Amino acid sequence: MPTMDYEELQPIHPEPTSFWRKYVFSLDHKMIARQFLWAGLLFLLVGGTLAMMIRWQWAFPGRPVPVIGPLFLSDQGGTIGPATYMTVFTMHGLIMIFFAITPILIGAFGNYCIPLMIGARDMAFPTLNMLSFWTFAVSLVLVICSFFGQLGAAGAGWTTYPPLSTNIGTPGSGQTFMVAAIFVTGVSTIMGGINYVTTVIRHRAPGMTYMRMPLTVWGLWLTAVLNVLFVPVLGSAALLLFLDRVFGTQFFIAGAAAVRGGGDPILFQHLFWIFGHPEVYILILPAWGIVSDILSFFSRKPANWYRGSVYAMCAVTILSAVVYGHHMFMTGMNPLLGQGFMLLTLIISIPAEILFLNWLRTIWQGSIRTDPPMLFALGMVFVFGMGGLTGLYLGATATDIYLHDTMFVVGHFHLTMAAASFMGSLAAIYFWFPKMFGRRMNESLSKVHFWWTVVFMTLLFTGQLIAGYAGQNRRLADPYEYNFIRHLLPLNRYTSYSAFILMAGQFVFVWNFIHSMFAGARAEMNPWQVGTLEWTIPSPPPHHNYDVIPTVLRGPHEFADPLVRERLGRDWIGQAEPLLEQTPGTSAPTAAAGRA
Amino acid sequence: MSTAVASVLKYRPRRSAADATAWLGMVVFLASWTMLFAALFAVYAVLRVRAPAWPPPDLPRLPLLLPGANTLAIVASGIALQSALHFSRTGRVARVLPAAVAALVLGAIFLAGQSALWVGLWREGLRPEGGPFPSVFYGLTAFHALHVLVGLFGLAFVVLRASRASYGPTRHLGLRLWCGYWHFVGVIWLLLYVTIFVL
User: Fold this and answer.
1) A251, A267, A272, A279, best to mutate vs chain B, most B CBs in 10 Å
2) Could you tell me the residue ranges of all domains in chain A?
3) What's the rounded Cα separation, in Å, for the pair A274 and A279?
4) Residues of B in contact with A258 (CB under 8 A)
């Protein structure tokens, strides 16, 4: 399309005045982002509490759980029995992945950052955006129903493998509710994904070429592409499992009758991991993008090899679709096929390594500012590095066969999906909090929170790695029933202490977040002195974001430019800020290049 | 390209930017749903390859005639809706409503035919719990029928708009979007007919 009237495409709508339209059924991407953030943080707390129950069980198996035991487990004398233990780790995994990290990183920051950072007034489809949140809310209701389901909550593991997840393995309604919740939250995710993909393609401000987009937007956009293409595959698996459970079909139930054949439990694993491997990148790509930007912003240097980071993220997005078999080395897969998947899996570490080296070279010799977002970004780089390196052991079949189904796997994916995504989420929260709520968070408390989190999170997840390397299987209600694991009790106990201290430290954040929202110092327009578009408008932004849609002249990380320092006396320049004697939109060289 | 088509394309009014955005959203949605149905067809393929006999000899055979008639109904419905869009684009506004009504009625006939098919097979003893073959048959056709049902609501909306003469050469976004959706549902049915009934 040669010319497009940006103002006509995105007219300014009047701000809604009624309470319902403003706070509940809001069409404003910034309000929907906050709704997702609140929902995600709330379920992060629920998921975290469940994690503490797991750790309690492994530190003190069979001993009554303090506080939670008398409240929720009084019929079992406050202890966690094997059946309850199954539901606890299942719900922990599902809640953390689908109802905590996904809404925070993708629901909240996808919604908040994409329109603001590309210079749009809202998402392409605001109504769809609202429906996306309320569909997500329906899935949250299903999750809560699952807790009160007959025979307890879902208990077939977060992977929900049949036959354990069929009526034979988990006959309770809690599992059915959870399968339905996965389907419904998938629909919500796809709605959001359609919106993000379309918005980035169609609503970029004039001059905001793909290669001028902040890396945050790149990460979120590629995530949306993966969501749109692979969440439906999970949807199909959840749908068929739901049919098996409710309508008695036999897609995944291995056959009884000789003539008719039977369903195939392994088929579910294929469907699950065709989605599941892109999913781990869905959870990390937004964090990669956010961290890439923040490292540049707080090193006061342009991001090293911006295009390389973009290409690396694109390569990971594509490769993530063809490596899923490494989750299934132990399912009787043909060894030749296993080798193929191993090769592809190890190849994916090359773009990841490019991205990682770009981060290191971005901060190399930078004028590093240790503000809280930067600390969390550095923390993310650290834990992601460990998570990535331990992944190599699991991608290679020779070591995976030994480490399969041990706590080493748990430690690995917690370092990447939990620690790195969580650190990325926190970096994003600390970074955009001033823009979101118009106030600053307390810096000292933020730094306390960082050091507390990074130290105990590392201890916690390396404890898991060591236990797994020593041979401890995952998902055991009482691992010490086995002689060869018994000597790991002290290690597990120290790991659990780290977990409890880590959890306690999060209340520093809860207090800081809520207190700052109402009583923090007022934030100015651009507290971090960076050049992306969202920092050129008031904090919090007005309903329509931009009075005039900006014309973008340059990339997002223009730091330490001698010419800028000479003319403007500062080390940064806005993406839409004219530097030479030029006005936006005229035929000056940079503006013309942006439109080409 | 024939000259008739070329002349229509040449004089087609320019689409607004907002319409182009909405259409892109529809394309992304259909790409997503293609993955969903691709996964379901993959399930069908795996279960069929694994089965010792397909269809199992002790189960009632699927008819070809009734679903064949259904195929004609949904294809005709798609053509009717496409011509409604064509009439709207070329300014023959009075013909939009009859074409849209025809599409809606043919779609409803399809759904009625599907219901008759299910009821008949159920009475003959084909039950979802009878193994992978009936599972695939009921699961895939029912999930497809749900999409037809959604499409019928969409077509009803289109008919309502057409009865108020809301469509014209430049104003037919809703019609165009539902047309895309309806063709998608039709193509999925063609694939289902070939894979489940014919092959």
Assistant:
1) A251
2) 25-253+262-595
3) 9
4) 52
Sequence ranges of the domains in chain B: 3-198
Chain B residues within 8 A of A200 when measuring between CB atoms: none
Q: Is there a contact between B51 and A261 if contact means CB atoms under 8 Å apart? A: yes
Decide if B143 and A195 are in contact by the 8 Å CB cutoff: no
For the entire predicted model, the pTM comes to 0.93
B49 touches chain A (CB under 8 A): no
What's domain B3-198's architecture? Up-down Bundle (1.20)
Report yes or no: A263 and A251 within 8 Å, Cβ to Cβ: yes
Kindly tell me the burial class for residue B153, based on how many C-beta atoms sit within 10 Å of its own C-beta (0-12, 13-18, 19 or more).
Answer: exposed
Q: Which amino acid is at A282?
A: I
Number of neighbours of residue B123 by Cβ within 10 angstroms: 9
Distance from C-alpha of A48 to C-alpha of A502, rounded to nearest angstrom: 10
**Does the domain made of A25-253+262-595 have the CATH classification 3.40.50.2020?**
no
Cβ of B39 within 8 Å of Cβ of A236? The answer is yes
Each residue's pLDDT, cut to its tens digit, for chain A (596 residues) gives: 445 678 888 888 888 889 999 899 999 999 999 999 999 999 999 999 999 999 999 999 989 999 888 888 888 888 998 999 999 999 999 999 999 999 999 999 999 999 999 999 999 999 999 999 999 999 999 999 999 988 889 999 999 999 899 998 899 999 999 999 999 999 999 999 999 999 999 999 999 999 999 999 999 999 999 999 999 999 999 999 999 999 999 999 886 556 677 889 999 999 999 999 999 999 999 999 999 999 999 999 999 999 999 999 999 999 999 999 999 999 988 999 999 999 999 999 999 999 999 999 999 999 999 999 999 999 999 999 999 999 999 999 999 999 999 999 999 999 999 999 999 999 999 999 999 999 999 999 999 999 999 999 999 999 999 999 999 999 999 999 999 999 999 999 999 999 999 999 999 999 999 999 999 999 999 999 999 999 999 999 999 999 999 999 999 999 999 999 999 999 999 999 998 755 555 444 444 444 33
Whether the CB-CB separation of A184 and A175 falls below 8 Å is answered with no
